[in-house]
């Protein structure tokens, strides 16, 4: 690891918090680190994030630490994936705390006397990621953007039509900068995972190749199963109490599915759960509204056409949903079938 030694210091940008993990704010600086890792024959695992870290992010980090010599996290709030009316300005930005959380994470690897910790944090600037500037209005954008056509319009894409274009674009840039052997994404954002796997296949990427883009199960609050999410921080005390309703609705749909009910009835079971909670919440002036509950094929991402047979050897089905609690939008999903078969 000697060649990596020169990087074992905090970059000298004064606005950055001090950190025992080396921080890189430009692609050129990061590439020197990456080149040294390559020369040292070290595998690199990559965890892309938008910061505001919670234990869901740390599950990705732990898996990367376990499976790679070196782990890199990026923290970048990507303007291109926020529509003009969305929460780019208020998205939580908590870099000093994020670095403390990441620094505290370590893993002792069996057969290896060393303890592994994150090796680098990549903090690119908006200017370098979008050299022609970035307008959240797609029609006004200049420069190079990526679309994974036919897969980003359903589920989340119905409510956020430009979201996956922004994600595909930024993640491709991040992959080009980091050149990871393995990359880790959370099941909470299942459509994002499946679209990015397809992007890797379609663009013949080798860093990572699609098989090395890993989907890590959703981390939940152990007390009530709420999926951990940076946006949970927006919830009021009352909203936080109601937030597990989305998962409860998905579980009701899953039970109906497992009982052999047709898809439409499963969706009704889920909407019943939300309706009852929404009625109660209204009494405290809190608006709770279901955005969608959908069953989608995990390969085409098309909504299921009514045929519901899940053969032992067939592809998994994605049961997913989004719920508004006041002005906060939460998402969650359950994979029906074998997660290992997701491609
Ligand atoms: N509960 C979770 N379990 C596992 N992975 C998660 C969880 N929450 C987020 N991730 C993953 O962490 C990565 C970075 O996500 P991001 O920084 O957007 O956090 P987030 O909590 O998903 O934020 P948001 O509230 O904006 O959806 C993504 O791959 C995402 O799927
Ligand atoms: C993958 C990602 C970091 C791209 O900005 C973001 O969409 C996220 O955090 O899920
Ligand atoms: N984890 C998803 C990021 C977003 O909603 O913008």
Structure explained in plain terms:
- The structure is a single chain.
- The chain is of the alpha/beta class and 343 residues long.
- The protein has 2 domains: 2-216, Rossmann fold (3-Layer(aba) Sandwich); 230-341, Pantoate-beta-alanine ligase, C-terminal domain (Pantoate--beta-alanine Ligase, Chain: A,domain 2, 2-Layer Sandwich), CATH 3.30.1300.10.
- It has helices at residues 27-39, 55-67, 95-104, 126-129, 156-159, 163-178, 190-202, 237-242, 245-258, 263-283; strands at 23-24, 44-49, 70-75, 107-108, 115-116, 120-122, 182-186, 213-216, 288-297, 317-325, 328-336.
- The strands form 3 sheets. It has a 6-stranded parallel β-sheet with strand order 1-6-3-2-7-8, with helices on both faces. A 3-stranded antiparallel β-sheet has the order 9-10-11, with helices on one face. A two-stranded antiparallel sheet has the order 4-5.
- A hairpin with a 2-residue loop joins strand 10 (317-325) and strand 11 (328-336).
- Helix 6 (163-178) crosses helix 7 (190-202) and helix 9 packs antiparallel against helix 10.
- The protein starts with 22 loop residues before the first strand and ends in a 7-residue tail after the last strand.
- Its EC number is 6.3.2.1.
- It catalyses: (R)-pantoate + beta-alanine + ATP = (R)-pantothenate + AMP + diphosphate + H(+).
- It is an enzyme of class 6 (ligase).
- Keywords: ATP-binding, Ligase, Nucleotide-binding, Pantothenate biosynthesis.
- GO terms for molecular function: ATP binding; pantoate-beta-alanine ligase activity.
């Amino acid at each position: 690891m000697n060649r990596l030694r020169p990087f074992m210091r905090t970059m000298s940008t004064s606005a950055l918090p001090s950190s025992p993990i080396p921080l890189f704010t430009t692609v050129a600086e990061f590439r020197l680190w990456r080149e040294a890792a390559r020369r040292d024959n070290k595998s690199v695992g990559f965890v892309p994030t938008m910061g505001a870290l919670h234990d869901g992010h740390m599950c990705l980090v732990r898996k990367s630490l376990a499976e790679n010599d070196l782990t890199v996290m990026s923290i970048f709030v990507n303007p291109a994936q926020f529509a003009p009316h969305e929460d780019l300005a208020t998205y939580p930005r908590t870099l000093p705390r994020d670095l403390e959380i990441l620094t505290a994470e370590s893993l002792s690897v069996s057969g290896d006397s060393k303890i592994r910790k994150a090796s680098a944090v990549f903090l690119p600037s908006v200017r370098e990621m979008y050299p022609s500037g970035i307008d959240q209005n797609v029609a006004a954008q200049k420069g190079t953007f990526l679309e994974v056509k036919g897969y980003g319009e359903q589920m989340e894409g119905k409510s956020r039509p430009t979201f996956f274009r922004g994600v595909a674009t930024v993640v491709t840039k991040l992959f080009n900068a980091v050149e990871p052997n393995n990359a880790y994404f959370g099941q909470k954002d299942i459509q994002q995972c499946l679209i990015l796997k397809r992007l890797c296949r379609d663009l013949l990427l080798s860093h990572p190749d699609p098989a090395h883009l890993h989907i890590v199960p959703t981390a939940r609050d152990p007390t009530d199963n709420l999926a951990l999410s940076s946006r949970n921080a927006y919830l009021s005390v009352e909203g936080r109490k109601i937030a597990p309703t989305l998962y409860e609705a998905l579980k009701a749909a899953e039970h109906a599915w497992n009982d052999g009910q047709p898809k439409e009835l499963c969706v009704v079971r889920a909407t019943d759960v939300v309706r009852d909670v929404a009625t109660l919440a209204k009494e405290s002036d809190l608006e709770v509204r279901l955005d969608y509950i959908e069953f989608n094929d995990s390969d085409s991402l098309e909504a299921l056409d009514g045929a519901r047979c899940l053969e032992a050897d067939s592809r998994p089905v994605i049961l997913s949903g989004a719920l508004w609690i006041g002005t906060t939008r939460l998402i969650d999903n359950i994979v029906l079938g074998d997660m290992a078969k997701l491609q």
